[in-house]
Specification:
The protein is an alpha/beta fold. It folds into two domains: 3-80, no CATH class; 90-214, Carbonic anhydrase (Beta-carbonic Anhydrase, Chain A, 3-Layer(aba) Sandwich), CATH 3.40.1050. It contains ten helices and five strands. A five-stranded mixed β-sheet has the order 2-1-3-4-5, covered by helices on one side. Helix 4 (102-106) links the parallel strand 1 and strand 2. The chain is globular and about 75 Å long. The protein starts with a helix and ends in a 7-residue tail after the last strand. Bound molecules: zinc ion.
């Protein structure tokens, strides 16, 4: 056999092994899926026309126009790949920080997760009711999160920022109290007691997206 044929055979064997791994090993399938999603985002990111990040001179009107164009294209993609299933069993409360992408935390969160985003993951009575509604709609796990390098946490610790954002920083001070209040709500309490709901607490490492589980916080960092 020639060297060229041997290389061809080796390549075919590696390709076959990779395809088998993708087909039969769920974790490999998950990683390949995630890589393809990221590849798709990278392809969109590199289009200068749709790049908000590096163009400081772009006006609000131009941004809005871009956003609408992008929405048209995104809706075209959705037409090609229609959603078929929607069954949320998880609700995540996460900070509005743009670095946190819930799909990066847990894979595809589009159809199986309710996601409530608030600055600093504050849990005012309105968000408590949103999560309660999610439980009534079938959610079995609620993940209350906070995250490293949080601007809302920094604001709460900064006297000058506290003067500028009194409502937000005031709610940040009440985070522990609000969690306790939430856990005591009858719908939540009863669902936990019946074994139909678990409420978890986790700190998100903003750089790695890893969830670091913790106990019910007596204080937030
Ligand atoms: Zn934050």
């Amino acid at each position: 056999m020639s060297t060229k044929s041997r290389w061809g055979l080796a390549f075919a064997a590696v390709l076959a092994a990779a395809l088998l791994a993708v087909a039969f090993i769920p974790s490999v399938e998950f990683i390949v899926g995630g890589a393809l999603v990221n590849l798709g985002f990278r392809l969109q990111d590199r289009l200068g026309h749709y790049d908000f990040e590096h163009d400081e001179s772009i006006s609000p009107a131009e941004i809005w126009e871009e956003l609408q164009e992008q929405n048209d294209l995104a809706a075209d993609v959705r037409d090609i790949f229609p959603r078929t299933v929607r069954h949320p069993v998880v609700a995540i409360l996460a900070c509005m920080d743009a670095r946190i992408d819930t799909a990066e935390l847990a894979g595809d969160t589009r159809r199986y997760y309710y996601v409530v985003r608030t600055a600093g993951s504050i849990l005012s009575p309105a968000e408590q009711e949103m999560l309660e509604l999610a439980v009534l709609n079938g959610v079995k796990v609620i993940v209350l999160t906070s995250h490293s390098d949080c601007a809302a946490e920094a604001a709460a610790a900064d006297p000058e920022a506290r003067e500028k954002f009194p409502a937000l920083t005031g709610l940040m001070d009440e985070r522990v109290k609000r969690v306790e209040e939430f856990l005591a709500r009858p719908i939540i309490r009863n669902a936990i007691d019946r074994g139909e709901l678990e409420v978890k607490f986790a700190r998100i490492d903003t750089d790695s997206d890893r969830l670091v589980l913790g106990d019910i916080p007596t204080t937030f960092p």
